[in-house]
Design goal:
mainly alpha
Length: about 220
């Protein structure tokens, strides 16, 4: 089954990235993309391009991340793919392109909770990328109210940290750091290395909030 096989490459890459083996994760994604092309499944290939875009972003290759995310959005034009691409475009310094994808996503189930969730998430990322962390916090609180309970709220944690509200941010980083099992319920949505990266952000936020024992514990786990 092309879909199951494709997912195997993505989840292998996710596991490798959580172990810090980023170059191997890229190889797995590229192998999967070759399989997707051979199977005639561009939407599956698009998801792997988004994973590659995240790896590029965490390495500071913002221009590469933007190109990969935009190309992915043109291959996987469903709402799920568009919101993930918009997140990466905003985070890599292209909020205007993220807004364009939000416009494209308005066609999916207009007025539904899912559509409102997609639009709120993108608006929050655009506000954060545009230098308005307070506005992003306000918008992401709306996202939080719409989002499924099992989903991590790292978007709200990032916005709170950017707004200098580290003690509040810790409250959203902690459950991500302490419950990796929740990540693997939805590894297809999250980006490769997400939980490990969140653990490091939790350590930094706890240190800045003066919660030194929590910071040390998280950093030890990260190392």
């Amino acid at each position: 089954d092309a879909t199951v096989r494709s997912r195997g490459f993505s989840e292998k890459a996710a596991l490798l990235a959580e172990l810090g083996r980023y170059s191997e994760a890229r190889v797995a994604l590229e192998e999967g993309m070759a399989q997707d092309t051979a199977a005639g499944r561009p939407e599956l290939r698009g998801g792997k391009q988004l994973a590659l875009a995240y790896l590029a972003l965490r390495e500071g290759r913002r221009a590469d991340a933007r190109v990969l995310a935009w190309n992915a959005a043109n291959q996987d034009s469903g709402a799920f793919g568009l919101v993930r691409a918009a997140i990466l475009l905003a985070r890599s310094g292209a909020p205007a392109d993220a807004r364009k994808l939000a416009e494209r996503a308005t066609a999916f189930a207009p007025g539904s909770v899912y559509n409102r969730l997609v639009q709120s998430r993108i608006r929050g990322e655009v506000l954060l990328a545009s230098g308005d962390p307070a506005g992003a916090v306000e918008e992401f609180r709306k996202t939080h109210a719409l989002d499924a309970g099992i989903r991590p709220r790292e978007y709200l944690a990032r916005a709170l940290s950017a707004a200098g509200r580290e003690a509040e941010a810790v409250g959203y980083w902690r459950p991500i750091a302490e419950r990796p099992d929740l990540l693997w319920q939805s590894a297809d949505f999250d980006f490769p290395g997400f939980q490990t990266d969140a653990l490091f952000e939790y350590a930094k936020a706890a240190a800045r909030a003066g919660q030194l024992e929590q910071a040390r514990s998280a950093l030890n786990q990260y190392m």
